Amino acid sequence: MKYIVPVPDITLYEDGFGKFDLLDRRAKGRQLSELVERIDDPLVIAIDGPWGSGKSFFLKCWVGAHSVENEGSAKTVYFDAFENDFLDDPLLSLTSAITDRMGQNGNVGEGWTKVRTAAAKLWRPTTRIALAMATAGASEVVGVVADAALESSKEELDKQVDAFWRKEETRKAAMDGFRTALTEITDTSQETGEQQKLVVVIDELDRCRPDYALSVLEVIKHFFTVPNVHFVLGVNLVELANSVKARYGSETNTQLYLQKFITVTLNLPNSSGQRGQTKDVSLQYFSKMAKQMSLNPQMVDVVKSYLEIGSVRKSHSLRSMERLLTEMALIPQVDQPFEKLYAGYQHVISGLLVLKILFPDTYNLAKTKNLGMTDVRKLFDVPFPIDEDTDHKSTVINYAWASFLKPDEAGPRDGWRGMFDTFGLDNPEQAFEAVLENFLEAVSFGGVPNGQ
Fold it and tell me: Which end of the chain is more exposed for a tag (fewer CB within 10 A), N or C?
């Protein structure tokens, strides 16, 4: 049995969705390929989704699928922004990633050498007047003039100001040279004489420092806005909006700001399959990963019965499913294997696992003995009273939990007490404490003390 959810070993640019398409997102990949191939004007496409929705996995598959499966001619480049956010300026690292990709056949080409050279000129701190002034807290011309602490003569200051503007003119020329070189390359391929489009995938942008994330957007807009060059961003737009507020203030109109940089937004589907036969992507992922990890089949079935409940499904994500699978793998199986427990224990253990990952506040209520049956019924969509002849799932959930918790509406039937003979405990409070101690809190994941 594994306790870590297996991560597919995807070879960038060579593998497509193929055997890795556990979430049926190949069709969305084809849509993206068709869009970047058809449009010549520069696009910035945001693949939007919350953390844990599978954006990175999708993009890593797509950079290969574009040519391998979708017959796309554009060159794709994958750039992990989070791995580079320790730098102040993303231009050089981004340009290096592109030229490295273009030179994978051993020949970067004269055009890309020009691009890299222009980027290197731009990367140098040409907006700084002098290191001494920068350390004095005056890196801009206005700051230099205003800072009385700098005891420079008027003649020296005039020279420095002149030098500053000369460097700015050089910087503008370098910017123009960068875009010109990029346009020449993507307008006509040096190898085939045909149009060569470029699609740069920037992943993990929402995990970066706010300043760096926004610098990436600004670099794209100011340096790469040329025909036949597209960008695809893997991003949580809600978190990116928070980065805008962190940099420019809470009153900033983030939607208006981001519209200046992002052309199109695509959302990854939360369901798969044909119309009328759709499947929840997170549930599908949960089932497939549980099988690969060789988790207890009975536990998987009972936990899944909770995940299928409507109110619970709204809280799913691929990341939360991974955490849930890890918690399931760590449930002790020594003295009392899960499948040998009575149904009541199986249901409460499984329900608590779901609460622990998806609804931690409710789980803490349970741990502190402040969870009531009204809370359970509301969370798990259990009606009361229940038609026991037609609604078996609600009946089992209701009486299993009511046998543990002090009921605030109606208690369990006497016949359901037999579900809890496993530990020889008649007292519901003792039984609940046994479940927490022997299963849910027996192992602390990640070095967090029990009870924290």
Answer: C
